[in-house]
């Protein structure tokens, strides 16, 4: 039985530890996810092994701060797997700017997410905030998953440029992208210390067993 979870707009099947969002485009998949119909409402299964945001929720994050009607800046959208669930969460009055620098994945995203009118795909580097500012507005939420060495600086730059006052931002950190030679926990502690200099760190979770050597930080703009 699918029912509301503690996280707004996210649903769960308790006994089976499964997560779902409401399908924004009923009858249409965004990737290989399962579609489940219950009482004429269509849900899309959200697998923590394929999405770090789902892994964060599965690891008992109390609040992801992404709500219905929010405007989200999503950096590192890839082919749109997690973007599609964010699109389900914010719904038809919300909006997602989906940014990626790789033309090949952006082409797939446009194909996979056809019909989702609340997404603007943007082919650009998250590091080029000057160019991004010509295309996007101030946002309620920033979500970044770019697996780059300078991911922390890019995240902070985007917070300063685009996040509304008191807005929230989520950062997925891949330890091996920062330094393959150091222990992930050491890197995560260092990222936390750096984030605390410029933001309020609300939550921090490693994403094991779903995503190896990854962590997610939830911060609030000071
Ligand atoms: C791990 S994948 C993202 C997966 C995606 N967030 C999901 O859950 O479906 C990382 C993506 O970041 C993109 N990327 C890397 N550096 C970037 C940058 N500076 N600006 C924008 N996108 C970047 C890559 O092209 C890749 O598609």
Question: Which descriptors would you attach to this protein?
Answer:
222 residues; alpha/beta; Rossmann fold; 2 domains; seven-stranded mixed β-sheet; five-stranded antiparallel β-sheet; globular; binds S-adenosylmethionine
What can you see in these coordinates?
By secondary structure, the protein is an alpha/beta fold. It has two domains: about 1-45, Phosphorylase Kinase, domain 1 (2-Layer Sandwich); about 50-220, Vaccinia Virus protein VP39 (Rossmann fold, 3-Layer(aba) Sandwich). Helices cover about 30% and strands about 30% of the residues. It is built from seven helices and twelve strands. Strands 8-7-6-9-10-12-11 form a seven-stranded mixed beta sheet, with helices on both faces. It has a five-stranded antiparallel beta sheet with strand order 1-2-3-5-4. The radius of gyration is 17 Å and the shape is globular. The protein starts with a strand and ends with a strand. The model has no long low-confidence stretch (mean pLDDT about 95). S-adenosylmethionine binds near residues 52, 99 and 126.
């Amino acid at each position: 039985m699918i029912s509301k979870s503690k996280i707004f707009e996210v649903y769960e099947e308790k006994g089976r530890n499964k997560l779902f969002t409401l399908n924004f485009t009923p009858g249409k998949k965004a990737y290989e996810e399962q579609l489940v119909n219950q009482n004429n409402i269509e849900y899309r299964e959200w697998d923590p092994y394929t999405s770090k945001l789902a892994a964060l929720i599965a690891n008992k994050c109390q609040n992801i701060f992404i709500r219905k009607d929010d405007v989200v800046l999503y950096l590192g959208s890839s082919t749109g797997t997690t973007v599609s669930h964010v699109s389900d969460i914010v719904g038809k009055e919300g909006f997602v700017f989906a940014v990626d620098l790789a033309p090949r994945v952006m082409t797939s995203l446009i194909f996979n997410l056809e019909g989702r009118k609340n997404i603007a795909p943007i082919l650009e580097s998250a590091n080029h905030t000057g160019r991004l500012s010509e295309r996007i507005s101030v946002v309620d939420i920033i979500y970044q998953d770019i697996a780059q060495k300078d991911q922390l600086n890019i995240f902070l730059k985007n917070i300063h440029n685009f996040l509304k006052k008191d807005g929230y931002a989520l950062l997925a950190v891949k330890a091996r992208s920062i330094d393959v030679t150091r222990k992930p926990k050491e890197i995560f502690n260092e990222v936390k210390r750096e984030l605390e200099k410029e933001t309020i760190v609300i939550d921090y979770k490693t994403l094991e067993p779903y995503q190896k050597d990854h962590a997610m930080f939830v911060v609030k703009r000071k």
